[in-house]
Batch of 3 targets.
Target 1
Amino acid sequence: MLFTAISFLYYFFPIVIVFYFIVPKKMQNVVLLIASMLFYFFGEPKYIFLMLTEILIVYMEGRLIAKYKKKSLLVIAIFIHIGLLCFFKYTDFMILNVNQLLNVNVSLLRIALPIGISFYTFQILGYVIDVYKGKVKPQKSFLKLATYVSLFPQLIAGPIVRYETIEKELDSRKHSFENFSYGVRRFTIGLAKKVLIANMLGELCNQFTGTDEKSILFYWIFAISYMLQIYFDFSSYSDMAIGLGRIFGFHFLENFNYPYISKSITEFWRRWHISLSSWFKDYVYIPLGGNRKGLKKQIRNILIVWVLTGIWHGASWNFVIWGLLFAIILIIEKIFLGKYLEKCPNFLKRLYVLFIVMISFVIFNAENMGEAWQNILGLWGANGESLINSYTLYYIRSYLVILMIAFIGATPLLRNTVLKLKKNEKINKLINILEPVWIIWLLLVVTAYLIDNSYNPFLYFRF
Amino acid sequence: MSDKVKNVVVTISFLFVIISLLIVNLIKEDILISLAERRKLQQFPKFSVEELFNGGFFEKFEKYAMDQFIQRETFRNLKINIDMNVLKKQDYNNIYEYDEKLIEQIYPLNEKSIENMTQKMNEINQKYLDQTNKVYYTIVPDKNYFIDNRHLKLDYAKLQHIMEENLNWAEYINIVDCLDLSCYYATDSHWKQERLEKVVDRIARYMDLKIEGNYEEKKVVDFKGVYAGQFPMEVGNDEIRILTNEVIDSCTVYNYEANKTTPIYDMAKINAPDKYDIYLSGAVPLLTIENPNGNQDKELIVFRDSYGSSLVPLLVEEYCHITVIDTRYIFPKILGQYVEFENKDVIFIYSTLLINNSVSLK
């Protein structure tokens, strides 16, 4: 089930909220666990047992690791969960490569990827490693651990919530109008970012990929639109997760912080998918030695982390190359470019980041490296297309407003303006009056867009 | 309003919206058909363990939740208004408004479809037609043809070229210059019968027909066409008007599928979802029109799509027997059981809408 499904917004969610707030506090985790299981079951019925099994295993692992403090137990735990992730996510990728390398024809297993497995596997791994290190105590309540792993607000698209972040809130959490209202605002804005901006930019990208009438300008429009789409898509899920979490009293950490205003790629990765990059930093980069064992090992560690980051995003070589691209740029920034960047004017630094990120997402988006290369060459007219054509002009006219909204929304301009205005008491009161109207209006507009997805006219219907 | 009050208002209003809509959606009666979309709406899915575990139940439930949402059309209108007026999108699902008319943007040119169309026509020619037949074809341009280049348009010249190249056994009657945008309904894809005078003259000239006409024009009913439901913005009003004279009034139409005889204008269709069906009863596989005042030596066979429904009544004058065939609904290979082709005039009347999307042709 997705947050953008009508069945979630107007059936599942209100029912869960009502039950959650009418049951005694002790039962609230039970309601959340049942809701999370149903949420997963609605989207992925057959894999509910896989998730439940993993939760049961990690519950026992946590208790055993804490009791015996043996590294071998941790290694076994990591092996089990990484093994399951690899089996479901990378088996066909590996078979394809073996087939190509050895010129054999092993059949693909075509295993469907369990939704959210990449996210909950990393949460599970983080938990067992933290228990082993003594950073957190093992959760004695199976119910609470299961609630943590399966918590529906962040189950399918993150952020990767560390156990330590919500450890105390699993036991006791505060509910207030302030929390609920913040959650509603955050969730609705996330919903609007996804439905009104990301999906529309997706439509524009589809117009590009679906046509033979490409032009150089359309290659650029596509690259920029996709870069904006992926930001709004991904960050909107984090907004919705953080908002939903807050409604139920959980404080998840921020996952995006206006990454497109970064002045270096190093800064970009401190602002983009923060929960993933900090996970790799804490559980891979630092245990490998980080930057403490000389430049050579630091470079090795960066390469390992970024190959893993790439392959985490998907089982395809273009994700590996996408990760490696960032590794190389991060290494170059660390070795010498960083110093020169510092001296550049801000707009040049930002242009540099945006360009690199744009190219990286062209690679990220492509089905294979051939397509990625073609789309990169297209930016420079190397595919022989004209500079502009009527098809491009039509779609620029059709999506200009949404592109402008996306440009502005990707910067903190609007947020800073509102914060500045709110310092004035009178304006703050006015904003407070307008805000509920705005939130409900946004919710209804999003509903209208979601309902319209069912629009499916049949011109030659014979009654 | 203080921050505290605002938090209470946001919380209560959000809860009110989602809970009240849940209740309303639960208690409201489900609707069977969407007239705007001309399709059956999803009903509450039947429960089975198999459907539950293969995800089918939830998939259907989501469709049901969207299809049966309270005030669905109002929400759709809101969406379209924002798309067109706030976000300034150029079309909504390829429909746009131009000069108080709703136009469908047919794009891009589907060469495979045109080739499929000509192949189907060639098959009919090879199987049924010979030197005894005088064969013609004409192409009805869609409304988008008449719009300036701000919108995406088919390469009509190329379409015509492919047709001509593949149909050298039939004479092409070009009617494009006999039409303009005002000849079409504001809310529908079709042309207006009362504006087809020039088209009829052109066809008559090519086919060597004498058509007196002298029609009386009558308004039958107000009309909201197929686009009105899809793009519910206020545009010009439409009316179904018919052209009649003694010849047309004396004709009878036999519908093979329904095994029923009707007049040329089927007034039973006044209450049909698509009132354009008044012309020759709408989408019908096979019809014959008997004209007691026609020349007993002259017979006509028309292969057509829905545009032919309003045009054919104006071509009947000289013919005693007219066969009207829509091969979207009947396999051409069985036509021999019903139709004699020898010594008859034959005309194919197809719109660019069908030519560019001919997958439904049998």
Note: Residues 412-452 of chain A form one domain.
Target 2
Amino acid sequence: MPRPTSPSIPEKEFLVSAIQQSLRLDGRPLTTLREPQLIFGSELGWVECVMGKTRVLAAIDAKMVKPAADRPYEGMINIHSEISPMASSEYEQGRTSDEEVTITRMLDKVLRRSDALDKESLCVVAGQRVWSLRLTIQFLSDGGNMLDCACLAGIVALRHFRKPEVDVEGEEVTIHSPESRAPLPLAIHHTPICFTFALFSFPTTQTGSTAAPLISTLPSGSFSTHQTYALLDPDLLEETLAHGTLSIALNAQSELCVLQKMGGVPLDQAKVVRLVELAVEKAKELEIFIERSLKEDWAGRGLEVI
Amino acid sequence: MSIFVLPGDLIVPGSTGSKKLKLGPGLVEQSSAIVATRAGTLHSKQRTTFFIDSDTQRYVPASSDPVIGTITARQAESYRVDIGSASPATLDFLAFEGASKRNRPSLRVGSLVYARVSVAQRHLDPEIQCYDATTGKSAGFGELKGGMVIKVGAKTARSLLSPTHFLLPLLGAQFPLEVATGVNGRVWLSSVEKAASGSSTTSRNSVKNTIAAIRCVQAYDEEGLDAKGILALLASLSL
């Protein structure tokens, strides 16, 4: 498989001149998400998230295992994600790309280490029986910003999933089928959502552009020779050409979970704070959207409501 | 006549008299029967020429196709060009208008070229050229400077090449527009206002108009908008 060709010179030049005028190729303003779309499968915990041409599928299954010896009261959650050539011909089967490492680590931070899920609620019999959840994330199509899409799919899958009800009598554990007793939702503390900004930094020209960039006031320090633009939810071309990225994971209650900055674009404190504030605003919107989608799906399922 | 066919379907051409049958893409002859190898609509011309029109994303080079490619490497006597096919194409240094051993073209890696496929055989890398071999003139081919290139389906690309197609004249009536369409599913668009402020290709309007053109072509490709829909979309873009 040949190495993917990098974008041609006219494409680079055009994107740069468009960004300098605060224009994007798909007509979005710089700080707007592509409208996400959630498709729920017939099974609980099966969610496909679509953002533009990016598609990610998340599915959860649960089984009962013996807990780790040092954590007898805690259940387990494992995240499996692999970028296969299905997403894009850039990715190879069996070889881990840098992008895959980044996404896997971020998914782990956003979904597992942010303590979104109450692990103790997964305990059935202390030291004997706990639920082990397996979250499988499949990347179906790479249209840029697979990370945000995967995080959204993952967290919605966790909220959509329901574990079977369990009865414990002495040592005897009975798992009830969903037909006999309605399954229970997982105990979720909060809903972290990830937002990625593609950062572009251009030397400022004397004439200056007429359009007002997102971050208009330049810091007094040494960055003033450069103008930085932050594009929320970059598409494939923007992502490929970005000078750096900033990923912010937080929830609608403005609790910051992860902040990851990659690439060498200098960003001063005020800018980072402003981007975080913007992410909070978007997280609130997205949280409402998630609630509504879950409610609609649940209403359409016709299962008995607990 | 247009019928939808699936791979493996037998095609029975009517009697053609003494004329020889011509088979286009998606059709092969197998022991004196004609079999479709692709899904799509079967078209025929004058009962002797048959081809299948299918909306594929993959490009298989065919001789005399106009294509848009990106230069990926410079070699001793030729460029390697990515035209979206399985193997990269070769573009000889001499395959330009007015090129000679002394006077070589100076294209950088990453440049876009509009070229014509000259050799497309199954077991060879495709070859492309930027001039018309019979006249030695560029015939519209050559480097594409400025503008923006987008990817569309093969069917859209082919239909945009048709002189009677509505979309490009409609866009051209709204703002100045230069277009190069490659049947490999790449469309290059550029809108540069020549009269205003001299040479600046990055003027606000030209970028805006190019983006508008890109979005119209993409909307046509993905949603199959008609002329009315495109005009509505253009109006909503607030130019």
Note: Residues 220 and 226 of chain B are 7 Å apart (CA to CA).
Target 3
Amino acid sequence: MRTILACVLVTGVALLSGCAGSGGGKTESQVVALNGAGATFPAPIYSKWFDEYHKSHTGIQFNYQPIGSGGGIRQLLAGTVDFGASDQPMTDEQLSGAHAKVLHFPTVLGAVVPTYNIPDVSQELSFTPEALAGIMLGTIKKWNAPEIAKANPGVKLPASEIVVVHRSDGSGTTFVWTDYLSKVSPAWKSKAGAGNSINWPVGLGGKGNDGVAGLVKQTPNSIGYVELVYAIQNNMNYGRVRNASGAFVKAGLDSVTAAAASAAASIPADFRVSITNAPGAGAWPISSFTWLLVPQNIPDAAKRQAITGFLEWMLGPGQQMTQALSYAPLPDSVVAQEKQAIARIQ
Amino acid sequence: MRQVLRRVPERFLPGTRGLIGLRARLRTGDEIAYLATFAFAATIMAILVLLVFELYRSSGPTLHRFGLSFLTGRTWDPVAGEFGALPFLWGTVVTSALTLLLAVPVGLSAAIFLSEMAPPRISNALTFLIELLAAVPSVIYGLIGIFALVPFMRNVAQPALASAFGYLPIFQGPNYGVGVLTAGVILAIMVLPYIISVSREALLAVPRDQREAALALGATRWEATWRAVTPFARLGIVGSVFLALARALGETMAVTMVIGNNPKISASLFAPGYTIAAAIANEFSEATSDLHLSALIELGLVLFLLTMAINAAARLMVLATARKGTQQ
């Protein structure tokens, strides 16, 4: 009896694992399957790219799971995926903890914009970096505070309390937003800092861009931040921000690419760089790269060729597809720099 | 009833004619049934043990670093690497308590109406509709929360509470619409179907004699219901409350959409809060540092222990009242 039962159980387990095994991974020998996981922000353009690339290179199949930057880095380090993707560069600590060297390749640019809902104000608002940091820290409490009013002459701001809305889920959007605030405000840097999830001094948390947008729309006199792509696609109002060169800039695909171009001179060889508060006159200050994370050594020649081939294609025809999906393309200087870096994959 | 139950399996027991080729020592199907059911029961236990062990093991870094201060710390700062779970514990306990406070009286009354007072046809139709509510995904409740409940709480309910009971600290402070109270209300709506439908079944299972005896003694219909029928169904009703509590403690999506997600401890029910389940769901996918991940897993362990402690306490309470009671 026992042996029979054991047999049944063992066969069952074997069947199950067999099914699970055949479900993913390599299917046919001719098709090179590459698995990746990571950031959710660039997922729409990545799936477009992988789809288009597969059409012209039928032997190569990319699978991408948008599970979040943290998960992408983790899976890459664990060796369960062939490539990762992240909205923030890996830290030195993470890189030194990795078994293999990891290369960063910027793919597109993202940006974050402040969005607000003040029932009595229909004009577009402008914010100084100090005003944004003060609002987020809770030191600027009312909309008619002089720090906000000074940048908006002619706008009648109400004396109502500001309600701050932030992301409650860990997010690259939060990282870019807080990274910017840390650069422009020493007080923010010491009290809150930059990260995917942070200890917010004040405010309500909404889950995802839609959660933040929903709370802002619902709550009178509130201010929050969302991805530029999300704001554009949902026709949301968003404010101007004064950039490092002193100009009040409106976020747009051009001003985001301009931010990357103006920071290009100081981009290090490993592309791990924050481009918030970029110096250019037309630069949107709250911009960031998003990266593909690729191991430097890929022993499987077929996979190596597939990845390098894709990166070449992504930097060429791939960049033409970005604007249709509201992503800002990389500036030419960065593309040129990256093309040289592809040779480092061995 | 009991006789029937005992007889049904007997008809199937001695035969096992359909099973050919089994070894000789396999006299009856009993052995198979015993071993198979044992194996499945053991699997559940094994999963439970494995779960706790895995949670404990993976929360090593924070267990080691913070020890018990993890439970008393009030700061949750992933950037600085400082993790204290008290605001989440507080939020979880307060929202669950609010949920039961709101849902149990309503749910129990509805169950009594459906089982004791409503005409059977109406009762069945209403029960069907109520059970449909239990199948609504929680994200839908969250959306209803954001688009209907939050504006209602901000514009109507909370100002009314503040003006009527504003002297109480729990009804003071800024009114955002999202917050602990709103989370409690949405959770109460979500758990109502469980309480109503399970309690109704329990009340319906009370033997007729119980009612008739009470009525024969001169009780009014309400007295018979409240003093003879409801106590008899007590275990089932308490079970329904457990089920509701379990759902309230573990609910993630709907809560995170309306609670404001701010890990602060505030006396006011209008203030935003945070629950353990919501924090894990929000931060897990983007937790990049080992310590942050470990802290979130330890939160899971804390939620598990909290659920166990509350269930144990509730069970003890039931045992204590059952001993005092006379009906069971």
Note: Confidence is low (pLDDT under 50) at residues 1-19 of chain B.
